[in-house]
Amino acid sequence: MRMLFFWLVVLFACPTLILLYRASHDQDIESLPWYEFEELLTSDRVQDATVVEDPSSGYMIKVVRGAYWPANVEIGDKTALVKYKAKVVLTESLLDLLREHTEYKAEQNSNLLSSILLSLLPILILVGLIYFLFSRQLKAAGRGALQFGKSRARMMNPSQEKVTFKDVSGITEAKEEMHEIIEYLRDPGKFQKLGGRIPKGVLMVGPPGSGKTLMARAIAGEADVPFFSISGSDFVEMFVGVGASRVRDMFEEGKRHAPCLVFIDEIDAVGRSRFSGIGGGHDEREQTLNALLVEMDGFETNSGIIVIAATNRPDVLDPALLRPGRFDRQIRIDLPDVNGRLGILMLHAKKIKLAGGVDLGLIARGTPGFSGADLANLINEAALLAARNAKEAVELVDMEEARDKVAWGKERRSRKIDERDRQVTAYHEAGHALTGIFCRNGIPLHKITIIPRGVAYLGATMHLPEQDRYTHSRSELLDELAMLMGGRVAERLVFGEVTSGAAADIRQATDIARKMVCQWGMSETIGPLSYAGREDHIFLGRDITRSEDFSPETAREIDLEIRRLIGETEQRVVASLTQNRSKLELLAKTLLEVETLTAQQVYALLGMDFTPMAGVVYDASGDGDDGAKPPPIPDETATTTGS
Question: Domain ends where: 115, 140, 174?
């Protein structure tokens, strides 16, 4: 934008300077009518006359320039000469007068170039502006007008910041599979002597932030072969055929540097499934995809080129792209488990100054469902928080506050809340906490708070698991339902009515109960049958209509069974909280005073024995702020219920 502004100023300043020059040059020249010029000529008062050829004045009309003596001065006084110009019709009689009374000469207009420039300047400005804008588009589309179809893959420079497998944690199996490919490139004979061949393509699949691009950078750092990196969107342009040409050029460049690795990030931008719409069509994206399919496993072999691609949308990729011979191997990069999260935290914690006693294992246990990018953001937020508070090092309280901020948002202590809303929130969270304490298979309590966070949270009850869980028994799920219903039941017992604060709890409880009935066979009435329905991604034109796999009668039985499970659980919670009403009142009133209670403080307040979790350091002062991000149900390892 600055360059455009600069050239516009230059183009518009040129005619202005020319006009100013001509105006300053002609300001002391007197314009004479043709008859006055003839009178001065016949009275011998014209010293010299120059006929200037000016095409703009017409074929017969000429401009005469020179100097003359005014009538009131003596002829011959050169100090009194006055410059003049006169536009005349150059006839034979006028030429005779010029020959008789003065020596004249003819010359071209000295301002002819400026006149031509002024006449052509608007056209030049328009053409220059169009070329300037168009050249920027050409550079954005390729590397010039004649290089649209050239590959935009960038070869990794070894002098750049080098990332290796030591900088990647939490995805051990993926590292092992990728390390096998690197070993093949270093020593192909080791694998070929048994008749094996290396996969032509490797597709890394995983949710956003799980480390796919970081893994590709680590491969580039580990490999001793050329590594080309390109994004899927770099193939798609507004010009027809550019994408396919870039694919072909990319593989041609790879052949010249074979053996090599080619990394395509976000391949779903160019590899989406064909025939996904109603009717026919052959657009630019399909041409690019066809070229990619041919190059990866076409008639001509591209030995020595291994394509690595990454996507978080494998459901939209074309089946022809996923078949063996193209992407032979798919590597699933999932969210890290507790050990993986600990490793990631330790890697990022090397970049900051940690205080003594910071337990990263506690942070790892309290962040189920966090991706590697979330954990990196957590470390950065903790460092920023410690810096704002002028601390010498990052403390555990900073890490915990950063975790809660990443998961739910910043504390909103300035948010004005009605006193009745505070009371409802306190009893709601107390109901969650008490129900969890009295559930035999419940997840251990970690903290209760009624401090608002973000937009939706007025308070939260956080449970911290001892370890990641991948399966759930029926009794554990029933206790999970009870913990979710505890807040709503507490509101009804104390205030005689319920509020909208339990909306998320009801939705989560309904989802668990439905999966217990329809997917996990935990209902004696329905039995071990699956009524989950189809959950595949719907492509327009492929699955434009959906139908359930069971009859309306079965659907009614499912609804009744879900209602029975939640209803019986609610009655169990009502009986438990009614029996422990005094503890509910005590816990809620204490929350209204201190706003946040740790698990150790809750057990001490209720006069109950507290068994600390192995390896967890509890903050008895209540200044610590810890929590766990709620992952999707039912594959959750931590539970957070809030109002």
Answer: 115
